[in-house]
Fold this sequence. Notes:
By secondary structure, the chain is of the alpha/beta class. It has 7 helices and 13 strands. The chain has helices at residues 14-22, 42-48, 61-71, 88-97, 170-190, 199-214, 221-245, and strands at 2-10, 30-35, 52-55, 74-81, 84-86, 104-107, 109-113, 116-117, 128-133, 137-139, 149-151, 155-157, 162-167.
Amino acid sequence: MQHLVAVILTRDEAHNIEPCIMSLRTWVDGVVVWDGGSVDDTVVRAQRAGALVVVRPFDNFAAQRQAALDTIDAEWILFVDADERATPELAREVRAVIGGLAVGYWIPRRNWIVGHALRGGGFAPDYQLRLLKRGNAAYVAERAVHEIVTLAGAEGYVSAPLVHYNYLTWEQFHRKQRVYAAYEARILAGRGIRPRPHNFVLQPLREFRRRFFTLGGWRDGQFGLQLALWLAWYYGFMPYRLLTQAPRAA
């Protein structure tokens, strides 16, 4: 059994996969690329960079991560996305903490969006539960994106970040937010929630207030304001708009 293996979930990440692997391979005991069916040359590039590649048809992120936990023979799994890079500081800290009592560790992300390193708005420190003791962690199957992990044991925190090149362009940002808005609409529909007129005003206002004031989006100045407005649209307004277009149950 290997002590620490980094797992990178991929699907068409040819432009990201090699630098991601190179940020990991010198300090973990193995790198596994868990590919969801790429049609570009992600697999070839990953193998060339020294990673083991496992191909599993993509269903959702939680199922992919759980399949990796169930399959990979390692005591500890570090999940890293292809658009993230491990820092030398993170490498040293991870190696130090896995000898401790916790069975899962939250890692902060330093998010970059359209060329801006963010300081607030929910994007900093943006903790993610990514370092898991394999026999003590499980993903909640019902949470297909923005996954939730349950731990049988204590959790801990590290201070060194993963660098996350989140969205390189506004077009990429808007495309992904439309996906997330549709997902949130499905969650609301599953709970039997139907939109009311006040939702289209109060929900965007609440989301803007949360992003810009509560979570400190103001720290990023005009860019933070722009981002908070867009997220108020996608998370506060769009799910309810999509609900109005959903067919009612008979």
